[in-house]
Amino acid sequence: MDQPPGNHPGPTPAPAPTAPRDLVGIGIGPFNLSLAALAHPLTGLSTAFYEQRPRFRWHPGLLIDGARVQVPFLADLVTLADPASHWSFLNYLKERERLFPFYFAERLHIQRAEYDAYCRWVSDHLPALHYGHQVDTVRWNPRHGLFEVDFTQLDADGGAEALGRTHTRNIVIGIGTEPHIPEPLRPLTATPGTPVVHAADYLAHRDMLRAAGHVTVVGSGQSGAEIFLDLLRDRPAGHERLHWIGRTEAFAPMEYSKLGLEHFTPDYTRYFHALPEAVRDRLVPAQWQLHKAIDADTLAAIHDELYRRTLHGGWPDTVLTPGVRVRTAGRIAGNRIELHLEHTQQGTRTRLTTDAVVLATGHRRRPLSPLLDSLDPYLHRDDAERPHIDDHYRLVLDPAVTATGCHVYVQNAELHTHGVGTPDLGLAAWRSATILNSVTGKDTYPLPARTAFTTFGLTQRRPQTPAGRQITALTPLADGV
Predict the structure, then answer these.
(1) What does the H/E/C string look like for the chain?
(2) What pLDDT shows up at residue 17?
(3) What is the reported pTM?
């Protein structure tokens, strides 16, 4: 039951809430939207999801025409946990009378703009979602054995309109990521009017970038490739004036072989979670090509466009150089930008003068603090001061909290404990189902015990029971393998 936080004079505690929620979600991106969609038909479960933005939007600055989601359409919000769900992508097409056109289009990977439209269709129909609500803090109330969630209701302009509080047994944090700007490039973004744009805001500034004389794209991942291709297609042959640089040793294709994709299965997630912390920390950066490289079709499209521009002789006025880091950056005479570059293999250095820069430097997880600062005394951390997260996506809290059956779950904040599948849309439904099974204490959504042909490691960890009360022992492989 949502209620305004009261002021209670003296030491008398507030009365216990009469109808606490079973689950409160903080943040409404694709992952908590998946959770809300799978929770919707569970009539005995009381849920609420809060998001400070006024409506659902998924990377609006990167909805470039033709850009596609890098997972098949079956990796929607619900299908891999409940193919019969009303909230599947196929049912979205049916509701929009687009099922036959999609059938004849024969597209396994849909456009990013279509995925965004599908998610907005789901979000527009789920009553448990509350947009324009900024969650301010989360506290544990030991007297009542519940979490308190304080929020601010925002008006249409983003101003504070009212304060509120809700009590809940479980919390799921899905606050997503934020644009990352490497330290050497931060002075550029700190100066008003400097033509430097993060890829997350690309579409809003595309006209300015198209008008710029020379543009440099920094970042060798998928967004950098898509933005370089989009700018390239707009410029006349022989007068492109584009630079594309990145730290990786190559403009490398995403690992997309069928067995390679099994790193994005629950089997690999369980294997990774059971590894020692030091091994996990060594693996994550080494696996960048599994999730931070470039779709092969995008690389092919870039090469095709560059090749087309050589048909009448000459080369396009473009420079594509991997293995380059930006040492420092600054603004020079007029409104131009100077980048000080270093080639990581040659050890050589140079300066690049450009009129505009697009920072395709990725996103980083938003910190869980200060949202969870009040829970810090209860929170268990690893050697790097990161939260311990169990295999049901629960923060490992003091038994004084968890003995009551109350938990805090996280979505897309567990890369250090669950591996490269953490931000992958293909595991969204499975993770949401795992969380709901844990919250309900039963197989609300039965999940398969095995999901990959690959056996990761010489021993296999089988799934826990829904409530996590029993862990099946490790099973050795048969002799002779």
Answers:
(1) CCECCCCCCCCCCCCCCCCCECEEEECCCHHHHHHHHHHCCCCCCCEEEEECCCCCCCCHHHCCCCCECCCCCCCCCCCCCCCCCCCCHHHHHHHCCCHHHHHHHCCCCCEHHHHHHHHHHHHCCCCCEEECEEEEEEEEECCCCEEEEEEEEECCCCCEEEEEEEEECEEEECCCEEECCCHHHHHHHCCCCCCEEEHHHCHHHHHHHHHCCCEEEECCCHHHHHHHHHHHHHCCCCCCCEEEECCCCCCCECCCCCCHHHHHCHHHHHHHHCCCHHHHHHHHHHCHHHHCCECHHHHHHHHHHHHHCCCCCCCCCEEEECCEEEEEEEECCCCCEEEEEEECCCCCEEEEEECEEEECCCEEECCCCCCCHHHHHHECECCCCCECECCCCEECECHHHHCCCCEEEECCCCHHHHCCCCCCHHHHHHHHHHHHHHHHCCCCCCCCCCCCCCCCCCEECCCCCCCCCCCCCCEECCCCC
(2) 66
(3) 0.92
